[in-house]
């Protein structure tokens, strides 16, 4: 397929060579040329890419599953399709379309998880910035079947902040069996639900309250987090908890502050950590525990659509690609407030 875009031979990219080597930003990483794209592949020129804690885990080799090396991280990219592989059949997207690149880069759509709508757990899945090169570069190769069309009414930086964290929380809430007016404990906000975030730091509190949370509990300041949550939620406890925290304690506490019939949604991906739940109270309180892993293509579209209609406010800071290493440091120390979105056009 021909293209009207001029595509350079080389690009700027952040490369992880080994898990303990410093991150390297180079400007002579080759760009896959349109003639080299396989059928079904597309080349996306990125506007920006969000930085996620997962990128840090991949970079450090923290998980039981290891990322490919050398690696270009990043899985919250937004940009324009500048080329589509020759002989691509029935592409749902075209050259010039604005699309998102999310964590799930590719799924086979034919294995049992895929057929059941759990393509994010595909037996043949490929992951951006993990098993295939991601979005901390100016150009990225993806698949026409799996890029996410970005609706109008949302900036690329906003869309980038939705593409991972937003989709993940959206899906967890969608499957949490909660209703309007129910209490959900989580560190991110969604409208139409009464939200009770628990996190730490004045800056985070100010942001969360400004975004419309009803109550805030600082886990470092509270003497008894469980009691404070129960007190804040009609004295009965929350209907659901969407737990992204990397500590086992956060899961144990959730069992304690959930009300009867409450749902615990596990969404964080810590490198290590066991989910430990008191069996007696899990049974007698009729608690359900679910693993909710990012989101499928439908969840992605729904989450972006909600944001494009102005129902979700994103808080992000735009920085150059050169700020990636310091962003990782900030994530390690827990000092990053909101999303850092890297501008890939500079
Ligand atoms: Zn992520
Ligand atoms: Zn599959």
TrEMBL record:
CDD domains for the chain: CAD3
Residues covered by the Alcohol dehydrogenase-like N-terminal domain: 39-152
Record Gene3D superfamilies: Medium-chain alcohol dehydrogenases, catalytic domain (3.90.180.10), NAD(P)-binding Rossmann-like Domain (3.40.50.720)
EC number: 1.1.1.1
Cofactor names: Zn(2+)
Family matches, as Pfam families: ADH_N, ADH_zinc_N
Residue intervals of the Alcohol dehydrogenase-like C-terminal domain: 202-308
Keywords tagged on the record: Metal-binding, NAD, Oxidoreductase, Zinc
GO MF entries: alcohol dehydrogenase (NAD+) activity; metal ion binding
InterPro entries: ADH-like_C, ADH-like_N, GroES-like_sf, NAD(P)-bd_dom_sf
Family note: Belongs to the zinc-containing alcohol dehydrogenase family.
Protein name: alcohol dehydrogenase
